[in-house]
Specification:
With 357 residues, the chain is α+β, with helices and mostly antiparallel strands. It has 14 helices and eight strands. It starts with a helix and ends with a strand.
């Protein structure tokens, strides 16, 4: 790559800096990115990795996006994944979820997974500096998107303007994958604990008339989101469900989800007590889809206890707030239900699951 770039030295617009590879352990990329930022005197910063393929019109289209919107801070594009022989492996398309994006839905989406491929990004230098640059040794770009999504304006271009290469020696492949996954999960948790409150993640609560009910539902959404990630401490999920009950002590969804959480942890005795409490709550509850669902789960649990058959699985799953609720409608209006939309990655615990009691 360096030899090819050297042939352009005669162009005064191009400055060439050579840096030995210090990123093999994936823990120095923040230093490299901040160094490159300091070396640039351009208003716009574009990223490009040596082994990827950029569409010839990528830079022109991104510059045009900034020219059409003076408030834009970050512009990224859709991505295709290729192998070492340029064979297409898969495509990532986020448009539809991200058009006219505000931080309402983007923060939630980013707290679930990184949807921004760094080599597709063009950003204002001052916008990166505003957020104090890149800060974490691992997945420093992902950490930046999460922190910046609350304060910066992002835009996704619909076209696939970059082909991202994966090969046995790439940083996103091989024996470092598990380490990268662990560190990425830690970034999510740190961002959630340090930079976000429940009102930051669900700003639509502000537009709800019944804020107490909205907070109850928001904590349930948050809890189920964390249960989608196997590495998440279940104590955090337990804490969030208890927080939801502070706003609605007789909440059927929260109580049922607490029982399911204890079943997953094989705390059968505790789950039985919670289901007994749920039974009393259901006697006074007006029927809706979630009430009927909770009754069915309670029935299945009691049948399993009576039969005591370890080979017969029962259907138990978490219950989300109704899509017709005030908060759900506000989420659709302002930011979208990004936690539970269709995605290339399978959800772990949001659908029906089989448990043996």
């Amino acid at each position: 790559t360096l030899k090819k770039i050297e042939t352009y030295r005669s162009d005064k617009r191009i400055k060439v800096y050579s840096q030995e590879n210090i990123g093999r352990n994936l823990d120095c990329f923040h230093h490299l990115r901040n160094k490159l930022l300091s070396l640039s005197n351009s208003e716009l910063i574009a990223v490009m990795d040596a082994d990827d393929i950029m569409h010839p019109d990528r830079l022109a289209k991104q510059v045009a996006a900034f020219e059409s919107d003076p408030d834009l801070d970050i512009c990224f594009t859709n991505t295709q994944i290729i192998d070492e022989k340029n064979r297409l492996l898969r495509s990532y398309t986020w448009i539809g979820e991200l058009e006219d994006q505000t931080h309402y839905g983007l923060s939630r989406k980013l707290l679930k997974r990184n949807i921004i491929c760094h080599p597709t990004v063009m950003a204002k230098k001052k916008s990166i500096e505003k957020m104090d640059g890149f800060q974490t040794p691992f997945a420093s770009d992902y950490d930046f998107w999460i922190r910046g999504s609350r304060f910066l304006k992002f835009r996704a271009l619909e076209e696939h303007l970059l082909q991202y290469r994966i090969h046995p020696e790439s940083s996103s492949n091989g024996n470092k994958t598990s380490l990268l996954k662990k560190e990425t999960e830690q970034i999510r948790l740190n961002a959630r604990n340090k930079h976000y409150t429940i009102l930051d993640i669900y700003p639509e609560i502000e537009y709800c008339k019944d804020k107490n009910r909205a907070l109850y539902e928001a904590y349930i959404h948050d809890a189920i989101y964390y249960m989608e990630h196997c590495q998440t401490d279940r104590n955090l999920v337990y804490h969030l469900l208890l927080k939801s009950l502070e706003h609605k002590p007789d909440g059927i969804e929260a109580v049922c989800n607490l029982a399911v959480l204890h079943l997953i942890s094989q705390n059968i005795e505790t789950a039985s007590k919670i289901y007994k409490h749920l039974e009393h709550l259901l006697e006074k509850a007006d029927p809706d889809a979630n009430i009927l669902d909770a009754r069915k789960q309670l029935e299945n649990f009691n049948i399993a206890l009576v039969n005591n058959n370890p080979d017969r699985p029962i259907h138990i799953h978490f219950i989300l707030p109704l899509s017709t609720s005030e908060l759900s409608k506000q989420m659709d209006l302002y930011g979208g239900q990004y936690f539970f939309s269709n995605s290339p990655e399978p959800s772990v615990l949001t659908g029906e699951m089989l448990l043996q009691v």
